[in-house]
Amino acid sequence: MAGEPQDDCLFCKIVAKEIPATVVRETETTLAFRDINPQAPTHVLVIPKAHYADAAALAAGDPAAAADVLREAGEVAAQEGADSYRIVFNTGAGAGQTVFHTHAHVLGGRGLQWPPG
Ligand code: 5GP
Ligand code: ZN
């Protein structure tokens, strides 16, 4: 069923605390934790606790949780003291998505080039 935990999903395992993560914020519906391979001084992943493969699936299946993820991404940036930052949802393998549980990358703490490449 949509949103249910998936046995083979890394981020569902982090939500279930079966795999450790450095959590920086948590709400009833979201979890924010540091990326294991940071690409900037601030690199935090914000995920819905419910399993949806990508941002569009989340927005379609649980719009309130999608809004929660966006709000929490802003809260993470504020908590980290990043006044300029980027929120990225890689969607599809061709765009660099490697974990198919929706996650917002919150990147900040250094200059960010545009376009990103
Ligand atoms: P994607 O490439 O799917 O947009 O992003 C997946 C992100 O998850 C990558 O930036 C990667 O470094 C991060 N990641 C992969 N495995 C783990 C893990 O076990 N723990 C944490 N904290 N981050 C992970
Ligand atoms: Zn999952």
Helix segment tally = 3
Report on the biggest sheet: 5 strands, antiparallel
Q: Which ranges are low-confidence, i.e. pLDDT below 50, for 5 or more consecutive residues?
A: none
- Helix coverage percent of residues? 25-40%
Domains, number: 1
Using the coordinates shown, work out and report the CATH topology: HIT family, subunit A
Protein name: Histidine triad nucleotide-binding protein
Motif (Histidine triad motif): 101-105
Active site: 103 (tele-amp-histidine intermediate)
Pfam families: HIT
Structure, explained:
By secondary structure, the protein is α+β, with helices and mostly antiparallel strands. It has one domain (10-108): HIT-like (HIT family, subunit A), CATH 3.30.428.10. Helix content is 26%, strand content 21%. The chain has three helices and five strands; from the N terminus they run αβββααββ. The protein has a five-stranded antiparallel sheet with strand order 1-2-3-5-4, covered by helices on one side. Helix 2 packs across helix 3. The N and C termini lie far apart (36 Å). The model has no long low-confidence stretch (mean pLDDT 97). Zinc ion binds at residues 6, 9, 11-12, 51, 101.
